[in-house]
Every structure is written in structure tokens, then in C-alpha cells.
């Protein structure tokens, strides 16, 4: 098995040098691209170890390393970075012969728009964004609102106080999809349940995805208002919310990966009723495999309930024992797949 290499982020000044070298006859796009033996992911805010979004992408790269004999590389973000840093990061990964190069998160859209045309033989993947397109760009997107609807059904069924919370890391259209589905699922199940939505930061401040203390404080505020189920779509900040709810003896609903099984959250796992999972792991693996097979994915690659691209995890034995809740979730899932329920993508 080949070892995954982690690449440190360097400054914007180096980015300027790298880009000027390309313009002055350095390594060009005609030299780029590989046969799928090298692949790279560039992490979103919070980086690897967030127990959520980025870790799910890493799992896909690790799966490809093991199953496809791929030489994997990872690149971490820096605090307060701008698009120039992301341009540099993607450029370096492409120059190194990685194919595909995958940006983990919608924040990479401006950078991929600039870099992808310079490396036409390299496939660029971007997770959670369909705004930037190109022949060598694969837009990996999910129906987050569908999985969140199921979370809302579960929350409405288990709450005893008739108050449940939603914590979004940053108030962006993507995270509002989570809120919209969750609120609709709650209200369709029990209109008397009150939902408390809260966002940690507003763009351009994306710190709401990386600061557990903000998540913890927000969760405590919702607990004080009698919330007994809290669903957090907040990346690393969500771990703070999970801690607060767990210590209060209340339920958490995790996000992106199956957080019940995340080692970093082991102390709080019993409080994680379920998680809204996005199959980022297989999405990353599938993109890498498509390049290796010589048939690289491009355009929109969508994952929804119908393909198990989003789901509600059942790792917590306490959740599995709630037969009426499981039955309600299963019915809601089938209704969405059959088109009987259309889930909103905005509150």
C-alpha cells in the first residue's frame, strides 16, 4: 500500500511566484495529468480531523489508496486564507501529476474556475458546488435536504419537550438546505414541535465551520430553551455542540459522516441518536476510479436518497430499538423516493 502524503500550505507570495512561473514557460498544462495512479484532495475549513466533512473525503482517498493502489496526497487549508491560496494549492497538486485533484467544499469554486482550464488533461472534482463547470470538472453534489428531512422526522418523534434545535456553521445556501429539510421533516411529522435554528457566523466569516467553542455555546443556548434534540451542520464546530448536548443528557443528530463511529467523539457517542450521512467517501473513490478507468466523470454527479447518496445512519443501538421512529423514517424515505414528498431546498 502506498502512503498518503500530506502537503503543507504556503503563503500567497509563493502562489504569485508559482503562477508567474507558469506564465513564463514553466511546467504547462500539456505536461499535466496522470493515468490515475496519483490523486489528491484539498481540504475545506477545519481540515482533516473535523470528525465530519473533511474526514469523509479522506476516507474516500484512503479507500482508493488501498483498493486502487493510488498514491494519495492531501493539502490542508490555512486560517483566514483567500482564493489565491486555493489557486496555488490546486496548481501545485495538478503540477505534481495528481489526477484527479478534488476540492473539498464549495469554497474551492473560484479557484477551480481559474486552475482547471490550465490543466485540461487533469480532472478537477469539487464537492458541494455546481456553479463552476467545464469539460474536466466533476461537480459532486448531494440532496442534503432529503437526508435532513429524515433527521427532522426522527427529531419530532423522539423529542419530549417539543423543542428541537438546528445549528448551522455558516449561513450559506448549502447549509440552509440542511435547515430547510430538517424543519420540513419536523413539521410534517408533528406541527406542534418548535424548531430553533441558529447560525454561528455569516459570510465572509467562515469560522463557524472550525470553532467548537461557538458550537458549544450555541447548543447550550438551545438547551436553555428546552431543546432536547440538536442537529448540527457545522463541521468541526459541531463537535462542540455534540459535547454540550451529551453532557446535558440530550440527543444529538450528526452530519456528513456517521459521527457515532468517529473516534474523536467516542466520549459522546451514546448521545448521537443518528447522523445525516453524505456518501462523500464513495463519491471521492468513484471519481478517482473513473479517472483510472479512462472514463473520468464530468458535469453534475448527484447523490440522493434514491442512490443512498444521503441517508440516516443506524449505528446507535438505542436508535435501532425505536421501532416506531425507524418505521416513520423508512416511510418518509420511500415517500421522497416515490415523489410523494418534495423536500424544500430553502427555508
Question: Which secondary structure elements does this structure contain, and how are they paired or packed?
Answer:
Blueprint: E1 5-7, H1 12-23, E2 38-42, H2 53-68, E3 71-75, H3 83-95, E4 101-103, H4 109-115, E5 124-127, E6 137-142, H5 144-158, E7 163-170, H6 173-189, E8 194-201, H7 212-224, E9 229-233, H8 238-247, E10 251-256, E11 272-278, H9 280-292, E12 299-303, E13 310-312, H10 317-320, H11 323-337
Helix pairs in contact: 1-3, 2-9, 3-4, 5-6, 5-11, 7-8
Main sheet strand line-up: 1-3-2-4-5-6-12
> What is the C-alpha radius of gyration, as a whole number of Å?
20 Å
Chain-averaged pLDDT: 90
- The SS-based structural class is alpha/beta
User: What is the number of strand segments?
Assistant: 13
Write the element-wise H/E pattern from the N-terminal end onward: EHEHEHEHEEHEHEHEHEEHEEHH
> What share of residues is helical?
25-40%
Please report which band the strand proportion falls in: under 5%, 5-15%, 15-25%, 25-35%, 35-45% or over 45%: 15-25%
Number of helices: 11
Biggest sheet details? 7 strands, parallel
Shape: globular
Name the poorly predicted regions: 8-33
Q: What's the N-to-C terminus distance?
A: 46 Å
Q: Would you write up a description of this structure?
A:
There is one protein chain. The chain is α/β, with parallel strands linked by helices and about 350 residues long. The chain starts with a strand and ends in a 10-residue tail after the last helix. The longest helix has 17 residues, at about 175-190. It is built from eleven helices and 13 strands. A seven-stranded parallel β-sheet has the order 1-3-2-4-5-6-12, sandwiched between helices. It has a six-stranded mixed β-sheet with strand order 8-7-9-10-11-13, sandwiched between helices. Helix 6 links the parallel strand 7 and strand 8.
Amino acid at each position: 500500500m502506498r502512503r498518503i502524503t500530506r502537503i503543507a500550505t504556503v503563503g500567497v507570495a509563493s502562489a504569485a511566484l508559482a503562477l508567474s512561473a507558469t506564465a513564463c514557460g514553466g511546467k504547462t498544462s500539456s505536461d499535466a495529468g496522470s493515468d490515475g495512479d496519483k490523486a489528491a484532495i484539498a481540504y475545506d475549513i477545519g481540515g482533516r480531523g473535523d470528525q465530519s466533512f473533511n474526514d469523509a473525503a479522506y476516507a474516500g482517498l484512503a479507500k482508493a489508496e488501498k483498493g486502487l493502489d493510488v498514491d494519495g496526497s492531501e493539502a490542508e487549508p490555512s486560517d483566514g486564507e483567500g482564493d489565491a491560496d486555493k489557486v496555488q494549492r490546486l496548481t501545485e497538486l495538478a503540477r505534481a501529476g495528481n489526477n484527479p485533484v478534488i476540492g473539498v467544499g464549495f469554497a474551492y469554486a473560484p479557484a477551480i474556475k481559474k486552475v482547471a482550464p490550465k490543466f485540461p488533461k487533469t480532472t478537477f472534482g469539487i464537492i458541494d458546488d455546481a456553479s463552476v463547470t467545464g469539460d474536466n470538472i466533476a461537480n459532486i453534489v448531494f440532496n442534503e435536504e432529503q437526508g435532513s428531512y429524515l433527521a427532522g422526522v426522527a427529531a419530532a418523534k423522539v423529542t419530549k419537550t417539543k423543542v428541537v434545535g438546528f445549528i448551522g456553521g455558516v449561513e450559506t445556501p448549502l447549509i440552509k438546505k440542511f435547515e430547510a429539510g430538517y424543519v420540513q421533516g419536523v413539521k410534517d411529522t408533528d406541527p406542534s414541535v418548535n424548531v430553533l435554528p441558529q447560525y454561528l457566523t455569516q459570510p465572509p466569516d467562515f469560522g463557524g465551520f472550525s470553532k467548537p467553542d461557538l458550537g458549544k455555546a450555541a447548543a447550550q443556548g438551545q438547551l436553555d430553551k428546552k431543546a432536547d434534540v440538536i442537529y448540527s451542520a457545522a463541521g468541526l464546530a459541531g463537535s462542540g455542540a455534540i459535547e454540550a448536548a451529551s453532557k446535558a443528557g440530550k440527543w444529538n443528530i450528526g452530519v456528513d459522516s456517521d459521527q457515532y463511529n468517529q473516534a474523536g467523539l467516542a466520549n459522546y457517542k451514546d448521545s448521537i441518536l443518528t447522523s445525516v450521512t453524505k456518501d462523500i467517501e464513495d463519491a471521492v473513490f468513484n471519481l478517482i476510479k473513473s479517472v483510472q478507468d479512462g472514463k473520468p466523470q464530468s458535469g453534475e454527479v448527484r447523490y440522493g436518497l434514491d442512490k443512498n447518496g444521503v441517508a440516516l445512519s443506524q449505528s446507535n443501538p438505542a436508535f435501532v430499538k425505536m421501532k416506531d421512529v425507524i418505521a416513520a423514517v423508512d416511510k418518509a424515505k420511500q415517500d421522497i423516493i416515490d415523489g410523494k414528498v418534495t423536500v424544500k431546498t430553502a427555508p
